[in-house]
Amino acid sequence: MAFLDLILLAAIAGFLGYRLWSILGTHDVDKPIRKRKSGDEDLVIPIRPRATFSEETEKIDEANDLQEDQFLKGAKVAFQQIVEAYAEGNLQALKKLLESPLLETFEDAIKKREKSKKKLEVDISRMISAEILEDREEKKVAYVTVKFVSEQCLVTRNSRGKVVEGDPDRYINVTDIWTFARPLKSSNPNWKLVATQVEEA
């Protein structure tokens, strides 16, 4: 009887493991945040974090925690890339990382900035923290909301290089709440940013 129970538990664990693999993918993002060139490969935020399992599948819970950590590593890379691409007015990079209509909002802001001949400078000195606030599924799409707290210097200059906003010698803590999304049945492991909220910490 114990042998049959063992086989049953092994079958359940195998099925749950297969479902976890098929939904979340197996990509890793282990490299530190860095500035990527426009020719680099597309960013992959590899996995959908968090799932609820029974006590009999604690090992899968542990694996899921590891996947959540990997997701946050990828999200930090995406954060750096998106902030830098926005400051540089790099629409090609933003198209790979943002979903409409948020992409259109970013494009409009960049066009207005360029029309006024202003230049935005952003220096992220360090990422203080990143945590998942919420993950949910809606209409076969997975959504993950992440709270980033970073130390930044934000400066806007006019066409002559004069500072019109911000202080190049002042760094402030900024809290960004971003939501990433990905269709559950998509074969593309990339997540895209669909919503942002910014506030000073």
Give structural attributes:
201 residues; alpha+beta; Nuclear Transport Factor 2, Chain: A; 5-stranded antiparallel beta sheet; 5 strands; disordered N terminus
Describe this entry's structure for a reader.
The protein has helices spanning 2-24, 58-88, 91-97, 102-115; strands spanning 119-138, 141-157, 163-166, 172-183, 192-200. By secondary structure, the protein is an alpha+beta fold. The chain has a single domain (2-200), classed as Nuclear Transport Factor 2, Chain: A, CATH 3.10.450. Strands 1, 2, 3, 4 and 5 form a 5-stranded antiparallel β-sheet that branches. Strand 1 (119-138) and strand 2 (141-157) form a beta hairpin. Helix 2 runs antiparallel to helix 3 (91-97). The longest helix is centred in the middle third of the chain and has 31 residues, at 58-88. It is globular and about 60 Å long. It starts with a helix and ends with a strand.
* Largest pleated sheet: 5 strands, antiparallel
Q: How much of the residues is beta strand, in percent? A: 25-35%
Give the C-alpha Rg: 20 Å
- The N- and C-terminal alpha carbons lie at a distance of 59 Å
- The gross shape turns out to be globular
Mean pLDDT: 79
The helix content, as a percent range, equals: 25-40%
Task: Briefly note the CATH topology name.
Answer: Nuclear Transport Factor 2, Chain: A
CATH class descriptor name: Alpha Beta
Order of helices and strands: HHHHEEEEE
The number of helical segments is: 4
Instruction: List low-confidence stretches.
Output: 1-41
CATH architecture level-2 label: Roll
Short summary of the structure?
The chain is an alpha+beta fold and 201 residues long. Helix content is 37%, strand content 31%. Strands 1, 2, 3, 4 and 5 form a five-stranded antiparallel sheet that branches.
